[in-house]
Write a structure and sequence with these properties.
The protein is α/β, with parallel strands linked by helices. The protein has one domain (6-152): Carbon-nitrogen hydrolase (Nitrilase/N-carbamoyl-D-aminoacid amidohydrolase, 4-Layer Sandwich). 21% of the residues lie in helices and 22% in strands. It has four helices and seven strands, in the order βαβαβββαββα. The strands form two sheets. Strands 1-2-3-4-5 form a five-stranded mixed sheet, covered by helices on one side. It has a two-stranded antiparallel sheet with strand order 6-7. The model has no long low-confidence stretch (mean pLDDT 92).
Length: 162
């Protein structure tokens, strides 16, 4: 198995300003000058961790999706992060795993953060995601999900990286 090089991008967020956040993260992504395999963005990177999804939730293949697709293609790396998606009348804190060729996978956050009442504003996911990328099996999750070891247990060696 070859090494996997990750770029983790963390930054202050422009609260509820999707356009400003996408522009800011684009600038930060371009500051990654060495080749990397995966670029990881924070939870709800385009709005901040908010329970107010009115006017912020996007259809699945809307602006943020298109932006992530463009960034992945231009950097020849996976771009991964969660954002607010509205689909079939439901709202999700959805992780998008966007590959440079435009193939993508999604994971809806399973364990919603009750102390922030996330469960009252978002629908929880029901399926774990395992993706294969450059020889690695990766199980991406969103923030609070990691606090539930039963959910992330690797019983059958399904993945190499959590």
């Amino acid at each position: 198995m070859q090494n996997l090089k990750l770029a983790l991008i963390q930054s202050d967020i422009h609260w509820h300003e999707i356009g400003a956040n996408l522009a800011m993260f684009e600038e930060k992504i371009w500051q990654v000058t060495e080749p990397v395999d995966v670029i990881l963005l924070p939870e709800m990177f385009q709005t901040g961790f908010t329970m107010n999804h009115d006017g912020l939730a996007e259809p699945m293949k809307f602006n943020t999706f298109k932006w992530m697709k463009q960034m992945a293609a231009q950097k020849n790396a996976v771009v991964c992060g969660s954002y607010i998606v509205k689909e079939a009348g439901k709202v999700f804190n959805r992780l998008l795993w966007m590959q440079p060729d435009g193939e993508y996978f999604t994971y809806d956050k399973r364990h919603l953060f009750r102390m922030a009442n996330e469960h009252r504003h978002f629908n929880m996911g029901s399926e774990k995601l395992i993706v294969e990328w450059r020889g690695w099996k990766i199980c991406p999750m969103v923030c609070y999900d990691l606090r539930f070891p039963v959910w992330s247990r690797n019983v059958n060696l399904e993945y190499d990286l959590l």
